[in-house]
Design brief:
By secondary structure, this protein is an alpha+beta fold. It has two helices and eleven strands.
């Protein structure tokens, strides 16, 4: 499991008709603040503030196709060549990370092949790197940088 120290939340949150809404800085809109959205927004802030990934390389909840099925991934980080690099599946905190969650991110990876796959519920975080046809579990984000040679433009 990967230990993530999330940055202190600095979200814009407001009540509308007794419902909490959060401002999403990537999509630039207000969203109903549900449990999974809280996990997604905290993970995005980790990517932006701690890992220093540019906003312009992060996509949230975009539609993809798995055969005839329409699905939505949670977070996709692109490399500097705008190719999928890290695919993240978020679950609400009370949903344990299970084999089904891992299979979900693997299915999404068929349409959006990325080198890194992450599953998180905000407390449990697991990550895999695809290498030579298999996935290897990794335990920290220290070496997961967009400044790696293979991610730079023209490499």
């Amino acid at each position: 499991m990967i230990l993530i120290e999330y940055p202190r939340p600095d979200f814009k949150i407001e009540l509308r008709n007794d419902q909490p809404f959060i401002f999403d800085t990537i999509r630039r809109k207000w969203l109903l603040l549900q449990d999974e959205e809280w996990v997604r927004q905290n993970f995005v802030q980790y990517l932006l503030q701690v890992m220093r990934y540019p906003k312009s390389l992060i996509a949230l909840e975009k539609e993809i196709y798995l055969g005839d099925l329409k699905k939505r991934f949670d977070i996709l980080v692109y490399d500097y060549n705008h190719k999928p690099w890290m695919l993240v599946e978020c679950k609400r905190e009370k949903v344990p990370i299970s084999e089904n969650t891992v299979h979900q991110v693997l299915r999404y990876n068929i349409s959006m092949p990325a080198e890194y796959l992450i599953v998180t519920n905000g407390n449990q975080n697991y990550g895999w790197q695809k290498k030579t046809g298999s996935c290897c579990l990794f335990r920290h984000f220290l070496n997961l940088s967009l400044t790696t040679k293979s991610l730079l433009p023209g490499k």
